[in-house]
Amino acid sequence: MTKKDVPTPRFGWALTGSGHFFKECIAIMQGLPHLDVFVSKAAAEVMRMYKQEMVLPEGTRIFKDTTASAAPVGNFYFGVYHTLIVAPASSNTVAKCVTGISDNLATNTFAQAGKCRVPTIVFACDTAPEMDTEAPSGMVKVYPRRIDLENTARLKTFDDTSVVESLAELTAAVDARKQWLKSLSS
User: Which one in 39, 58, 156, 170 has a CA-CA gap of 20 to 30 Å to 26?
Assistant: First the structure.
């Protein structure tokens, strides 16, 4: 597929180093048309730990975190993306996004989407004082720190950013963007 054959605008999906509903996020990605996936170095590690393979729709482009400047994010400036989804978003990613640090592919996509006013959906992992989450060896209980919960709350105040706290909310937000796309073509 050549650049001119790539349909635009597209969904962008950034994967971070969180295993929280990682497999379920991959399943949602499988139903998205015109998708680009941004895989941070931490996300690549999680994929190996969870023995997760990405089987994605034909035409999906995958960008891996291999450059210091996260070069693929330049596409945000050319209208290539109508939506960015950051899911699952680790506490590290959320903290960096809230403080304006964009030093990897996932945080850089968030920053560039914000600068280009691309609506962004963030599935934050640390949303309650006590949670169950899947680790590579099975389900575990986690207790997000106060700072993690505060960062999630701060992220909710960002322009053009929707923070979702559950898989059901993520699914609904993605479905709403798909409906919005359909409305543009009718």
Answer: 156
Percent of the chain with pLDDT over 70: 92
> What does each C-alpha distance from 100 to 104, 113, 178 come to in angstroms?
12, 12, 28
Question: Which sign does the torsion angle of CA 106, 109, 111, 113 carry?
Answer: negative
pTM of this prediction? 0.90
Tell me the CATH class for 3-181: alpha beta
> What's the CA gap between 138 and 99, in Å, rounded?
32
Q: Is 185 exposed, middle or buried (0-12, 13-18, 19+ CB in 10 A)?
A: exposed
- How far CA 98 is from CA of 8, 22, 153, in Å, comes to 28, 22, 10
Cα 77 to its chain centre, rounded Å, is: 18
Beta strand pairing call for 10-15 and 81-89: parallel
* Residue 72 token pair: 């693929």
11-58 tens-digit pLDDT: 999 999 887 788 889 999 999 989 999 998 888 777 777 666 677 888
The rounded distance, in Å, linking the Cα atoms of 83 and 13 is: 8
Residue 3 pLDDT exceeds 60: no
| Cα–Cα nearest to 24, from 141, 181, 171 | 171
